[in-house]
Design a protein that fits this description.
The protein is built from eleven helices and 14 strands. It has helices spanning 6-9, 20-31, 64-74, 88-93, 95-115, 149-167, 204-212, 240-255, 273-284, 308-314, 323-336, and strands at 11-15, 35-40, 55-58, 78-81, 120-126, 176-182, 184-186, 219-222, 234-235, 237-239, 261-265, 271-272, 290-293, 302-303.
């Protein structure tokens, strides 16, 4: 395989780059010297969240003709794919929405990528592919058995990536990928520049911060009778900035011609729903009223990551592993974020 020039290696297409994790990654990519083109349909993203030095194009990642033209005209052969729906309960209610947007769109994006010579593809996958794992922490060899259409839609995309990589072995431009299986992503940039602004967000830490800021009346605890120490679900929470850094390392890894990988992204320890709510109370100094409700479909009781492989393969060293740092940064962001989700003073900020 011919090693690419450093300049070529710096051009990247980011789908969903106006969303929560995508925008944090775009800022890190631009700051690291990458030439970034963001493609986002603004379903849940925001134009203001995109780095002012990144090219921004409104469009759908599943629009094969549009994606092919972008890749060809800009000479891009690296893609980071974030675009997708992420709400587990919604996926149970409306599975076809998730199989379309998460699986079919990803299939079209891969078709466009291979047609235009993309050789490096970083995919935003999920720990939901494990379902209720037989052992915890779950490592990359843990059998995949998703219990929600969301998890299944991510696993199907991983299968397509795997099969595509195998099919192009020995070709002039072999397709290689890294699928990063996220655990529970939360927090915000410590400088206050970015945070989670997803409309109608359902993530626990985001919701707890909204309550602490007086923007919601209470937070629901879905299930209090799980076989965990306090009866509530336990998750591995990862700071969004640490996760964004893993994407940069993944691009560098693929840029060096190395083989495909599936990697967990988490810290290897969990916090319960009640522990998270208590931490938000502590960092905010505000009341966070709760209401107990029944279990939600698609929620495993316990899910934490065995994440030694990502550290070894990518040299990933997380910087923000404290639950307090995660919750404090999320709360400070929420406190500064306007109620209608518009922050014009951030437009174009460096």
């Amino acid at each position: 395989m011919t090693r690419r020039s450093r300049a070529d290696r710096k051009r990247v297409l980011v789908t969903g780059g106006a969303g929560y994790i995508g925008s944090h990654t775009v800022w890190q990519l631009v700051d690291a010297g990458y030439e970034v083109t963001v493609l986002d349909n603004l379903y849940s993203g925001h134009r203001w969240a995109v780095h002012p030095q990144a090219e921004f194009i409104v469009g759908d990642a599943g629009d094969t003709d549009k994606v092919r033209a972008l890749l060809r005209e800009r000479g891009i052969i690296s893609v980071v794919h974030f675009a997708g729906h992420i709400v587990v309960p919604e996926s149970v209610r409306d599975p076809l929405k998730y199989y379309h947007n998460n699986t079919a769109v990803s299939r079209n994006l891969m078709e466009a990528s291979v047609a235009e010579g993309v050789t490096e593809f970083v995919f935003s996958s999920s720990a939901a592919v494990y379902g209720i794992p037989a052992k915890v922490p779950a490592d990359e060899e843990t059998p995949t058995a998703p219990i929600s259409p969301y998890g299944a839609s991510k696993l199907m995309t991983e299968w397509m990536l795997r099969d595509l990589a195998v099919a192009t072995v020995g070709s002039q431009r072999p397709f290689r990928y890294i699928a990063l299986r996220y655990f529970n992503v939360a927090g915000a940039r410590l400088d206050g520049r970015l945070g989670q602004a997803t409309p109608d967000a359902t993530h626990l830490i985001k919701t707890a911060c909204l309550v602490a800021c007086g923007l919601r009346s209470h937070i629901d605890i879905f299930g209090t009778d799980y076989e965990t120490p306090d009866g509530t679900c336990i998750r591995d929470y990862i700071h969004v900035e640490d996760l964004a850094a893993a994407h940069l390392l993944a691009l560098r890894y693929l840029g060096d011609g190395k083989p495909a990988q599936v990697l967990n992204c988490g810290y290897g320890r969990g916090s319960s729903v009640r522990e998270v709510i208590e931490m938000v109370r502590r960092v905010s100094g505000q009341a966070v009223p709760v209401q107990e409700a029944g279990r939600r479909a698609g929620d495993p009781p316990l899910l934490t990551a065995a994440a030694e492989r990502v550290r070894k393969v990518l040299g990933w060293v997380p910087q923000h592993q404290s639950l307090e740092v995660i919750c404090r940064s999320a709360y400070e962001w929420e406190r500064s974020f306007s109620k209608d989700g518009v922050v014009p003073e951030r437009e174009g900020r460096r």
